[in-house]
Each structure stands twice: as C-alpha cells, then as structure tokens.
Write a structure and sequence with these properties.
Blueprint lengths: L1 H6 L5 H18 L13 H10 L12 E5 L7 H7 L4 E6 L2 H13 L5 E5 L11 E5 L4 H8 L14 E7 L3 H4 L7 E4 L12 E7 L1
Parallel strand pairs: 1-2, 1-4, 2-3, 4-5
Antiparallel strand pairs: 5-7, 6-7
Helix pairs in contact: 2-5, 3-4
Length: about 210
C-alpha cells in the first residue's frame, strides 16, 4: 500500500494500518470467494483501493455526512473511503450475499466502526443519505432514477447532495442527458498510473 501513502501523505498511523490490512483480508477472502478477478488481485492497491479514493477528488465529505455505496461488491469504493473519512458513515449494499459478507468481514478486520452493510437491491433500501457512490454499477440514468428516493434534503457539504460515480471509457452518450448538471473530472490529472488514463469521477446533483 506504499502508493496510498505517496498520494495521501497526511494519513494517520491507524489509517495506514487499516489500508495495509486490506491486502491480507482481500487475498484471504479471494482464495475462497472470487470477489476480485484472480489476475487482478495483484493490482488491488491501484485498481481497487486507490481507484475508490478517486471519489475524494470530487468532494471531501464533511464530518457527520452519510454515504451509501450501491453495488459495493466486496467493498469498493465504500471501504477505502471509510478509512479515508473516519468521521463519515458509510452504508454498503449489494444484491449478492457472499460479496456483502466479504465486505463486512474486511471492514471488521480493519476495525472500521463507521461501516454498515446490507444484502439487498437498491430498490429495497429506503434510508436517506447525503451522497450515493458507486463504481461501474449501471448507466447513470438508471442509477439516478433508483437512488433519487435515498437523497436527503439537508445539506452539509460543499456540493449539493447527489450521486458520485467512478466510471471509465467514452461516456459522452451516457452523460449527454445530464450535460447541464453533471460534472466530470479525469483521475489521470491526479494519479499517474496507466490504469487511470480513461478513468473519471462523475457528479450529479439529485
């Protein structure tokens, strides 16, 4: 996890230990359940952990914020963000039970007290949050329709409450319906690894 410390030099010792714990936890779980593709587990730090932290380049969540991670899989982007923002609560949901069990176990192993998990589809979750985050879950228009009900009215962050997604590739057609409202940033402006060349963070107020 050396690369995490390089991009985030102000992390506390506890945060560094928590990030370090992810390597062992995911390696152990991936040997039992294929949460991350076998060939990609070696790239866990950059392709999954650092990629998840890219959300922070759009917004640093205010203390006391609540965030829901839709389609978290084994815990991305929610778990790395929960380490980075210990005063923010993260609720991780996924429709696949074995994946959400891994996410909870990894959070427990890292000692994260600001993470909750639930095995459910996003249509079933009725709670409200300041922001919804996701990583390549579904087209923006579909996700926006599903999570609009989960955005609370109170505002405590620098951006209006809404949806922040990690996406890659050519997004022109996907973003066109929202062109007056959406904000897009290139992660290659912040992270220099080749993986980030076509990776973006997308923000849509809801």
């Amino acid at each position: 996890m050396e690369v995490i410390g390089r991009y985030y030099p102000n992390l506390s010792d506890r945060q560094l230990q928590q990030f370090a714990s992810l390597e062992k936890s995911y390696a152990d779980w991936n040997a039992k359940i294929n949460v991350i593709s076998r060939k990609d587990i070696e790239n866990l730090c950059v392709n999954h952990v650092l990629h998840s932290l890219g959300i922070e380049k759009m917004l640093r969540f205010s203390p006391g914020s609540s965030v829901m991670d839709v389609g978290t899989g084994g815990g991305f982007p929610g778990i790395p963000l929960a380490i980075l923002f210990p005063e923010v609560s993260f609720h991780l949901i996924d429709g696949t039970g074995k994946k959400i069990r891994v996410a909870q176990a990894v959070a427990d192993a890292a000692g994260l007290t600001n993470v909750t998990t639930r095995h459910c589809r996003v249509e079933e979750e009725k709670a409200r949050f300041d922001f919804i985050v996701s990583r390549a879950v579904m087209p923006l228009s579909d996700l926006a329709k599903l999570v609009r009900k989960n955005i609370r009215a109170e505002q405590i962050n620098a951006l209006p409450n809404g949806l922040i997604c990690l996406k890659g590739g050519n997004l022109q057609s996907e973003l066109t319906p929202f062109r007056k409202h959406v904000i897009s940033i290139d992660l290659s402006d912040y992270y220099k690894e080749p993986f980030f060349e076509m990776k973006k963070v997308i923000y849509l107020p809801l």
